[in-house]
Amino acid sequence: MKIVIIGKFPYPQGYGLSIFCGNLAAGLSQLGCTVRVFIIWPTESGGRAVNKEASGKNGNVEFRYTCGRTDYPSPGRMLFLYKAWFWVYGIFALWSHLRKEDRGPEKIDTLLVTSISSYIWIVKLYAFLSGKTMVCYHGEYPACGQKVPWYRLPAFWVEKRFSHLLADGMIVATGVLAGYYGKYTRKDCLFCRIPILLKTEDFPEPDGNVGNVLTYCGDMSNSKDGVDFLLRVFGRVAPMFPDFRLQMIGSAPQCVMENLRKICEEENIADRVVFTGVLPHKQVIAALQKSAVLILTRPANKQAEGGFPSKLGEYLYTGNPVLVSAVGELPRILTDRENVFFARPGDMEDFAEKLKGILSDLPSARETGRRGRQFASENFNCRHQCEKILALCKTVEQNRRGNINV
Predict the structure, then answer these.
(1) 212 shares its domain with 342
(2) Which domain holds residue 285?
């Protein structure tokens, strides 16, 4: 099969959705599919771009930013016009690139859309006119963790109410999301639940050589991971474990970073917290593997209820102890003290006590980490999960052909 993944995520470097789509593309390619990745609009800000190439190859997968560049120009009076131009050009160029892919000896079978936005109508129109199927992916509730501007509310309502009717199949992270989006899709839309795609071959075997480092990795620009809460938890534990430091991998706008550094000053941990900024994925994996404990302090909000953090698979597969909030479907899938350590979301005392317990008995905690690695290998393995996604795409394609023949 030939599958085109379409979205507006940073590629090939990034977190969350970027890692998911990168692993999805690699997994489908390993299964013999021809895979292309098209990013419609710039995904980064001028001067801070990690992804600098607008086209190229990531492993065996060809990718392209259809708008011609990965980042927006530096902020200024013309930024709004630049965004409008890239919005229009990116969509028209996408159509052109899809036609080019279909002119070759191998034609597109499935268009896999990774976010619902205005461009989905264009993708569906192309699919309809050229006889393709369209599968959508959702890892969380729509616009979760984001404030929708008033002028976007009508379009957001239309997207929420009608865009999902366009999907022939849908990949979701959790059963909760399947129930939610199932209310808006057609009755013949097929669902597939994929919480995490873990590319295990990216990880070397653990050598037991870890440092006195606690690590968080992710996007620090909003409240979905409770980064400010994590800093305050570390502030409570730090005096009892003077040899340990906290490593924060990721980035955020300057105003957010200034606030986080202010919290570090208030908690007297400024000299023990390291903000690394965005790192290439290989360096992220190396940093995770060298960490004594990996932490995720998600609050109990709507985003946590429906989502399943992609970073958790990588956390677990390091074989190091993982401390995470007991939110959403995590307690249904993982077992406290068996393969992970759970703490009550938003409870600073409970998080601090659980972290103290782990650091006070690291040999025992590492046994839990070892079982977590085994669980991740058996349940989140990219190849096995991509086999399920490929089966969904083939079934949807067969259903389309069946409807044509009727």
Answers:
(1) yes
(2) 201-379
